[in-house]
Amino acid sequence: MGRRIAEVSTPARLAGPDEGLGRDELGLAARNHGLPLEALRHDLTPPGLHYVLTHYDIPYVPDETAWRLMVGGRVHRSLSLSPARLRGYPAVTARVTLECAGNGRALLTPRPVSQPWLVEAAGTADWTGVPLRVLLDEAGVRSDAVDVVFTGADHGVERGKEQDYRRSLPLGVATGDDPEVLVAYAMNGMPLPPQHGSPLRLVVPGWYGMAHVKWLREITVADTPFTGFQQSVAYRIRQEPGDEGEPVTRIAPRALMVPPGFPDFMSRTRFVAPGTVTLEGRAWSGRAPVTGVEVSTDDGATWQPAGLEPEHGHRWAWRRWSHTWTAVPGEHVLCARARDAAGNVQPVEQAWNRGGFANNAVQRVPVLCTGSP
Ligand SMILES: Nc1nc2c(c(=O)[nH]1)N[C@H]1C(S)=C(S)[C@@H](COP(=O)(O)O)O[C@H]1N2
Ligand SMILES: [Mo]
């Protein structure tokens, strides 16, 4: 409180040849954005600060009363459900931390060409809707069903092929109760905003973002495994282009830190004053509950256990952690890493894959401690 940095001097800096000049005719940078890391202080990510990722344009839905969610395929009774009708079912709300499977991609070498996230593709919201299994029960899934396919209303081209955004879940996941998959119509108690899938989206707690199909218009029960682009080509962990690869599914553990101190707008240096600094952040895993967070203030050479908030009853939401650090003048690299009950722990060195998916290398936060206490 009231502490000041005695002297701040950072070199003037000119943009490099590839900085700030990128052409963006598709508007990707305007549409997709990350979580400002200071927003990790909130249990629930404030409106507008939750990350957004959409492959194509955000659909325009001027009149949601005309929207129908079709449930069909290998079912006994096809359903056609309006958002109003869905709001008539008993509502379930789940607090869920969502993370893009490509989070951390921009830190990989060589860098896979796709949305260049550093670590900021995450956010936590309360999602309200109807359990998917309630709708599938009502439709009556036929005995030969194996997969459930979800189609969004958005549309674009990927690798030269025009397509809708479409993903599937194995029947057991779609009808399971751990996690309970939701067809959601509200985010934080409000109707879904356009960028988060208005009027309806899928929420698959614990799974990476690509599974949570937005602008959901069709649910198709299938008797063969779905092999569409977003399932069999994209979102697979592979080393070589021709590999079949492993599908991307549940979220690997990650801890993120609120960068302490304050930034220099031009040089991007972050300053902290000497003395006591509270390091804090959030940790989550979609694979098993988080069991511990450790902090390093020497770029991963040594680690100390951080305090972790007790379980709060929201199994699929991040938990707060904190740690007290005594900063001394000099340069420091701060890190945090999470582990979960299944024994998964964040690596310091990330194993590379072509898409840069499901990577959860520890975050590094360089700070410069300067001035006197
Ligand atoms: N229809 C549709 N759903 C989609 C996407 C999309 O492009 N189209 N992107 C997916 C991806 S890759 C992510 S990470 C999440 C992001 O959800 P959010 O924007 O609500 O944070 O939405 C998923 N659902
Ligand atoms: Mo994503």
**CATH homologous superfamily label of the largest domain:** Oxidoreductase, molybdopterin-binding domain
Number of folding domains? 2
- Rg (C-alpha, Å): 22 Å
Q: Strand fraction band?
A: 25-35%
What is the class of the largest domain in the CATH system?
Alpha Beta
Q: How does the overall form come out from the CA principal axes?
A: globular
Kindly name the structural category: mainly beta
Largest sheet: 6 strands, mixed
| Helix content estimate | under 10%
Strand elements, count: 22
Output the helix-strand order: HEEHEEHEEHEEEEHEEEEEEEEEEEE
Bound ligands:
ligand MTE, molybdenum atom
Mean pLDDT: 93
Q: Biggest sheet: strands side by side, in what order?
A: 14-15-22-21-17-18
Give structural notes:
The chain has 373 residues and is mostly beta strands. The chain folds into 2 domains: 25-247, Oxidoreductase, molybdopterin-binding domain (Sulfite Oxidase, Chain A, domain 2), CATH 3.90.420; 254-369, Immunoglobulin-like, CATH 2.60.40. It is built from 5 helices and 22 strands. The strands form 5 sheets. Strands 14-15-22-21-17-18 form a 6-stranded mixed beta sheet, with no helix packed on it. A hairpin with a 7-residue loop joins strand 17 and strand 18 (304-305). Molybdenum atom is lined by residues 53, 100-102, 209-210. The site of molybdenum atom has 6 residues, from loops.
Give me some keywords for this one.
binds molybdenum atom; five-stranded mixed β-sheet; 373 residues; 22 strands; mainly beta; binds the ligand Nc1nc2c(c(=O)[nH]1)N[C@H]1C(S)=C(S)[C@@H](COP(=O)(O)O)O[C@H]1N2; Immunoglobulin-like
